Amino acid sequence: MHTLKSEIAATAAALVVEEGLEYGAAKRRAVKQMALPARTELPGNDEIEDAVREYIALFCADTQPVELVALRGLALVWMERMAAFRPHLAGAVWHGTATRLSDIYIQLFCDDPKSAEIALIEHNVDYEPRTVTGFNGASVEALSLSSLCKPLNENVGVHLMVYDHDDLRGALRPDAKGRKPRGELSAVQKLMTETPEVDV
To answer: Which burial class, exposed, middle or buried, applies to 75 when counting CB atoms under 10 A from its CB (0-12, 13-18, 19+)?
Structure first.
């Protein structure tokens, strides 16, 4: 059973890297591609992430680091723009598994949930509001927009997830691997100083 799970994880990882799918969608597609029953037990997200890292090391070692730096640079631009709302970077761009097909997920912790949206309106930013499930299992508003990433010469999806200020307390607990699940502005800046320079 374990080997089937790892096969699903490997297939899903390829879809994450090559097509930019989210983990959940990649797992479902992998099951379909492998012609497995719909109720097949799926690998966890940690297993998918490990498989993604392996896939990147094997097939994208020459391109992925530069793409990651470009995405982190663009994330910093938006974090600085939204600095008043305690932005934290999460997802693949924070954890280092992002490629040019990855979206950027920035979590905002606001005293007033509408304040981030008002800031975008005031700066004439074209965005689309959606409701998604947040890291705490509750529904949160996501302000989704498209932003040009100059080094990659393409538009990247940026999702600003609007949380209540009080949610920040539980947001910084280490994940199952003992890592910080998200990073504030200074932590992302520190990551950028540890990696090669790319013009953003």
So the answer is: buried
Six token digits for residue 72: 């982190």
The closest alpha carbon to 189, from 72, 28, 82, belongs to 72
Query: 24 with 123, same domain?
Result: no
Strand order of the β-sheet with 88-90 is: 128-133, 139-149, 154-164, 104-110, 88-90, 183-184
Both 84 and 152 in one domain: the answer is: yes
**Structure confidence at residue 1 (pLDDT):** 46
CA 118 to chain centre: 24
Q: How many residues make up the chain in this entry?
A: 200
State both tokens at 89.
């970077």
Q: What is the pTM of this model?
A: 0.90
pLDDT tens per residue, range 108-155: 999 998 999 999 999 999 999 999 999 888 899 999 999 999 999 999
Q: Would 169 be classed as within a structural domain?
A: yes
